[in-house]
Design brief:
With 228 residues, the protein is of the alpha+beta class. It is 50% helix and 18% strand.
C-alpha cells in the first residue's frame, strides 16, 4: 500500500498560506487581522526555535534565537505566498510573534544549554543522518539519554512525499496492521508505529543495550524500505 505523507515542517507553512488565501476571498477589509493565521505562525516559529536551539546551539542569545526563527518562518511563508500571487506582508503577525514568544525563547535557551552540556558529557547522543538504499536521506533520533534510551524515531527527509508498506511485507515478512495511519508493524517482540508524517517509532524502554542496537538496525531497515 502506498500513502501520501504530510511532513510537519511543510504542514504549517501550507496551512498559513491556505488561511491567508481563504481570507483574501472574503469580504473582510484589506489588512484584516486573522487570529487563525497568528496561531499557526506562532506554532511554526516555535518549531523553528526548537530546531535552531538543538541544531545550531543558539543557547546564549535569546534575541538571536528568536530573530533567526522569525526570519526563517517568514522567508518560508512569504515564498509560498509569492508563488500564489498573494500579498506577502506578514509584518503585523511577526511583531506579535516577537512579543509573545520572548518567554518561550528564554525557556528554549535554558533547555538548549542543558542539552549542550549533556552532549558534551556523553549523556545525550547527537542525532544521526543516514542514507537509504534509494539514496534518500532519513534521520534516526534517540529519545532519552545515552544510558537510558526510551525510544527510537526515524524521520524521512523533505524530498520524501509518500511511503510504501508493501516492501515491509515482501522483504521482511512484516504484517502491517491498520487501514490508515497510524499503522502498527509487529516484529518479533517489538511493535513499530508509522504515523501520517512518515515517522516510525519504536519503544525500547527497559531493553538491554544489545536489544536496543537490534531495534536500531530494524528501524533503519524499515525506514529504508518505506522511503524507497
Amino acid at each position: 500500500m502506498k500513502a501520501k505523507i504530510v511532513l510537519q515542517e511543510q504542514y504549517l507553512p501550507d496551512r498559513i498560506v491556505q488561511l491567508i488565501e481563504q481570507g483574501s476571498r472574503t469580504d473582510a477589509p484589506t489588512g484584516g487581522y486573522s487570529n487563525a493565521v497568528e496561531f499557526a505562525l506562532l506554532e511554526l516559529i516555535r518549531e523553528k526555535m526548537r530546531e535552531l536551539a538543538q541544531d545550531f546551539g543558539f543557547t546564549r542569545d535569546r534575541g538571536r534565537l528568536l530573530t533567526a526563527a522569525i526570519g526563517s518562518a517568514a522567508d518560508q511563508v512569504e515564498a509560498l505566498l509569492e508563488g500564489k500571487g498573494l500579498p506577502a506582508d506578514l509584518k503585523q503577525y511577526l511583531e506579535r510573534a516577537r512579543e509573545k514568544l520572548g518567554p518561550a525563547a528564554n525557556e528554549l535557551q535554558e533547555l538548549g544549554g542543558r542539552l549542550d552540556v549533556s552532549q558534551k558529557t556523553g549523556k545525550l547522543v547527537p542525532r544521526a543522518e543516514r542514507s537509504t538504499e534509494s539514496r534518500r536521506a532519513f534521520e534516526v533520533r534517540q529519545i532519552g539519554l545515552a544510558e537510558s534510551v526510551e525510544g527510537l524515531l526515524a524521520l524521512p527527509a523533505s524530498e520524501v512525499h509518500e511511503i510504501s508498506t508493501e516492501r515491509l511485507e515482501y522483504d521482511l515478512g512484516c504484517q502491517v496492521v491498520g487501514d490508515w495511519f497510524p499503522f502498527e508493524v509487529p516484529y518479533e517482540d517489538l511493535v513499530l508505529v508509522i504515523d501520517d508524517d512518515g515517522s516510525v517509532y519504536v519503544s525500547v524502554e527497559n531493553l538491554p543495550p544489545r536489544l536496543v542496537e537490534q531495534a536500531r538496525k530494524l528501524i533503519e531497515k524499515i525506514a529504508g524500505l518505506l522511503y524507497a
